[in-house]
Amino acid sequence: MNSQSAQIHLRIPRPVQVTRILLLVIGILLSLSLCSQLVKYGTGHDQVFGIVPLLYVDYEANLPTWYSSMALLVASFVLCLIALSKRFQGDRYTFHWFFLSGLFFLLSVDEVATIHECAIEPMRRLIDARGVLHYAWVIPGGIFVLIVGAIMLRFLIALPSRTRNLFLTAGAVFVGGAIGVEMISAYHAYSHGEKNLLYALIITFEEAMEMLGVIIFIHASLEYLCESAKSFQIDMPKKSEAST
Predict the structure, then answer these.
(1) What pLDDT, on the 0 to 100 scale, is given for residue 46?
(2) Could you report the per-residue pLDDT of 42-100, keeping only the tens digit for each?
(3) What gap in Å lies between CA 225 and CA 85, rounded to an integer?
(4) Cβ pair 36, 55 in contact under 8 A
(5) How buried is 36 (Cβ within 10 angstroms: 0-12 exposed, 13-18 middle, 19+ buried)?
(6) Mean pLDDT score of the chain, rounded to an integer?
(7) What is the mean pLDDT of residues 208-231?
(8) What secondary structure, in 3-state letters, does 157-208 show?
(9) What is the dihedral of CA 92, 157, 18, 66, to 10 degrees?
(10) Contact, 100 vs 94, CB < 8 A?
């Protein structure tokens, strides 16, 4: 028996090209979402032949939601490739790359399943959340961000300065939207309700920040991956019969 290797080659796209495409996509999605709300409040119709639910960024199981989930999944995949390459190199921060990959995978699932919203009602009953804490999931969400930040601190310090700065920028933009602007929308919803154009504008800005944060992160991760190779190769063990 001779042991051979089957090689799988993955061509890594240029980060700039990927970023341009993703920026174009979110520009279209956000514009369509905003137009759907202008039509909704301009005509007084909530559905408009099903177009509003399909396009509005604050609704679930529609085009913006599935895009956001897929973008997070792409980030998870790129991080997994980096983690695999680090494992082959015996890098001390291999676990951290796998941890990030798993985290983005869970965020991708949550984007569709909205698991985080399950914490809203229990937290409201626990602390009588009002105003900026009307969407009370931001409390455990903020604590979670701090814990992840503490776990990843040494890892971030060890990164090349450009990658570290881009990761921090991506995190600040994403969390600023997901938690910061979410608290603004919570205050508005508590005071004036959710069915008004100003609330839709706030939500659109929030989702724009989240989408942009993910794009910055994907760009930084692809740049980091491209530093080592233009293509990614995985060797798969394969056995074949030797002629006698």
Answers:
(1) 86
(2) 998 888 888 999 999 999 899 999 999 999 999 999 999 999 999 988 999 999 999 99
(3) 9
(4) yes
(5) buried
(6) 90
(7) 90
(8) HHCCHHHHHHHHHHHHHHHHHHHHHHHHHHHHHHHHCCCCHHHHHHHHHHHH
(9) 80
(10) no
Residue 114 confidence (pLDDT): 87
Encode pLDDT of 17-33 as tens digits: 999 999 999 999 999 99
Q: How many domains does the chain have?
A: 1
User: Which residues are CB-neighbours of 50 under 8 A, at least 6 positions away?
Assistant: none
Residue 91 within a domain: yes
The residue type at 74? V
Domain assignment present for residue 4? The answer is no
Per the domain annotation, does 1 fall within a domain?
no
DSSP 212-232: HHHHHHHHHHHHHHHTT-SEE
Which structural domain range is residue 102 located in? 11-238
Alpha-carbon distances of 132 from 135, 142, 181, 185, rounded to whole Å = 7, 13, 10, 8
Side chain identity at residue 209, one-letter code: M
101 in a domain, yes or no? Answer: yes
Contact assessment for residue 199 and residue 185, using Cβ atoms and an 8 Å cutoff: yes
37: enclosing H helix or E strand = helix 15-43
Against a cut of 0.85, is the pTM above it? yes
What is the rounded CA–CA span in Å between residue 88 and residue 148?
25
